[in-house]
Known about the structure:
The complex is a heterodimer of chains A (274) and B (315).
Chain A: H1 3-18, H2 21-47, H3 52-63, H4 67-72, H5 78-90, H6 94-109, H7 112-117, H8 119-124, H9 130-168, H10 176-203, H11 207-230, H12 236-258, H13 264-268
Helix pairs in contact in A: 1-9, 2-5, 2-6, 2-9, 3-5, 5-9, 6-9, 6-10, 6-11, 9-10, 10-11, 10-12
Chain B: E1 9-18, E2 21-31, E3 36-40, H1 47-55, E4 62-67, H2 76-82, E5 83-86, H3 98-109, H4 114-122, H5 138-150, E6 156-160, H6 168-183, E7 187-192, H7 195-198, E8 204-209, E9 212-217, H8 219-226, E10 231-236, E11 251-257, E12 259-264, H9 270-279, E13 284-289, H10 294-305, E14 312-313
Parallel strand pairs in B: 3-7, 3-8, 5-6, 6-7
Antiparallel strand pairs in B: 1-2, 1-4, 2-14, 8-9, 10-12, 10-13, 11-12
Helix pairs in contact in B: 4-5, 8-10
Amino acid sequence: xxxxxxxxxxxxxxxxxxxxxxxxxxxxxxxxxxxxxxxxxxxxxxxxxxxxxxxxxxxxxxxxxxxxxxxxxxxxxxxxxxxxxxxxxxxxxxxxxxxxxxxxxxxxxxxxxxxxxxxxxxxxxxxxxxxxxxxxxxxxxxxxxxxxxxxxxxxxxxxxxxxxxxxxxxxxxxxxxxxxxxxxxxxxxxxxxxxxxxxxxxxxxxxxxxxxxxxxxxxxxxxxxxxxxxxxxxxxxxxxxxxxxxxxxxxxxxxxxxxxxxxxxxxxxxxxxx
Amino acid sequence: xxxxxxxxxxxxxxxxxxxxxxxxxxxxxxxxxxxxxxxxxxxxxxxxxxxxxxxxxxxxxxxxxxxxxxxxxxxxxxxxxxxxxxxxxxxxxxxxxxxxxxxxxxxxxxxxxxxxxxxxxxxxxxxxxxxxxxxxxxxxxxxxxxxxxxxxxxxxxxxxxxxxxxxxxxxxxxxxxxxxxxxxxxxxxxxxxxxxxxxxxxxxxxxxxxxxxxxxxxxxxxxxxxxxxxxxxxxxxxxxxxxxxxxxxxxxxxxxxxxxxxxxxxxxxxxxxxxxxxxxxxxxxxxxxxxxxxxxxxxxxxxxxxxxxxxxxxx
Lengths: 274, 315
């Protein structure tokens, strides 16, 4: 496989996305809602002096957790501990919802969209190997979602530290668990989903069908990631390492086997009836 | 004489079906290096499938294909590197500029960057390279697709309906450019259902029907084979006096198409026939031996070989 060709395929798609406002404006809005707006509002509510009732409720939830989990939570006051818990534990699934939503929208169109636009014929007659086309499409689907996550994560870190940092007594975010979540857990979950979605994109007959299928794939993966990220409450480091390792194994298998779903006949649109 | 299989493009008994539809059936064609072959036939004759089989984008169900001595399935990447293809739809990235389209193609085919401006200038699209392709006219799109196809200086050009949707002026310009490319020694296969496009370009016309080559050869060779009897166009002020022309000796048949098209056994009978018409009081306005155009040839071949059937459907 020639990586320069893989990057060329990815570059074409990324270039098209970059100049398409109808794609990146909703992407920015989505990232903004999950990484900026919701945390800003929720942390704002919790850190308000009038929010004692909410703080008490969160505090009760925390007392029901095992000792190891309670020990992780930082802050001297109930309000500080509530803000810390909200920022570190409750909003963790956001980190997977955003990249998956963004990337699955691109991945769903990866093959069927090209076919509908007639580009499939161009790719089929090109000297690009099928593996290179597949890897390029996968990369072009993964990059926007993951890039949005990294940018969102940076903004989220600032918001958390600005809102909750003064109560906890210092800037505490990102925690080790979040670093692991972003760098170790999110990428393989994203690749698992995309390896399935791009595979489906080669098999379905229309972009609409591909979008439907992508939604079906994303939902269980979001749920799985939610369960996984909830595990960080008990032991952030170990849980992330275990979950991430499992996801990486699945991702590598999914990516390696995914290329087999694509062939030149499917790019031309004559092999989709199978 | 059997051509050397390491040269040119050779299909032997090639078949390909899609479900129950047999798109190409036992197709055998030979296209020597540096020649222009025109695949001529109605929609559904198997022209596009043949182009796709040659690049290895489609796999044949049966038969063998050799492209410059290479097998499109085993050596597909090498063949596609040497091919320039213009598909029926130009297949361009609409949201990108013309230059972006050519730049990315140059990267895919490892063409030098300077080839971009050369190819664009050659097809008269250089002035619009900075514009988004979405704003291009159909003619500009075709020119860009042609420029893209020759960027990497391919040995083989596969043009599938390259003038589809073009106005006559643009179509003529595109055909002139194809003539120029053919003149530079490239092997060109052009699929079309437009007869006049093949005129003056083709070294070989391959008449396709139901996925099969029903006849093939140089247009003159085919004319000699299928148009043995010359045709003369005759018209007169008093046309009604021409009605019984087909009863005269040496006249094979007559048909009206604006004027009377008279098929005769030999041009040698023409002076006597004209003299006798004048004697009979026919006031002639036109007597013109007709040059055999590809259109006449096509319909004559069709008449002799039978109607070209639609694609075969197996039970």
